[in-house]
Amino acid sequence: MTDREELALRLDNAAAFAPPGSRWLHWKGQTYTVVLVCLNEETLEPMVIYAHDGLTFARLLTVWIEPVLVGNDWVPRFR
User: Fold this and answer.
1) Least C-beta-crowded within 10 Å: which of 25, 42, 52, 64?
2) Which of 67, 72, 63, 23 is nearest to 45 (CA)?
3) pLDDT in tens, the chain (79 residues)
């Protein structure tokens, strides 16, 4: 597999998890829409580009999927 094929596969896998256009509920209650997935230029880690209320944000996919501690419970950051 070439480097380009590996990167394309990484992007495809990320997009399968957080498809562009999908809506996600943040644990704090706001709803966000995935705009696209991309790769971080320096690390080549998958990132999720998402929007809410006219603002656009970027978050590493690993952070997107990690749970957060709320009170005494671990909950998904986005669901």
Assistant:
1) 42
2) 63
3) 789 999 999 999 999 999 999 999 999 999 999 999 999 999 999 999 999 999 999 999 999 999 999 999 999 999 9
**Amino acid (1-letter code) at residue 3:** D
Nearest CA to 59 out of 14, 4, 21 is that of 14
The identity of residue 42, as a single letter, is: E
- pTM for this structure? 0.90
User: What is the C-alpha separation between 25 and 34, in angstroms, rounded?
Assistant: 11
Place of tokens 């943040």: 26
SS3 of 10-49? HHHHHHHHCCCCCEEEECCCCEEEEEEEEECCCCCCEEEE
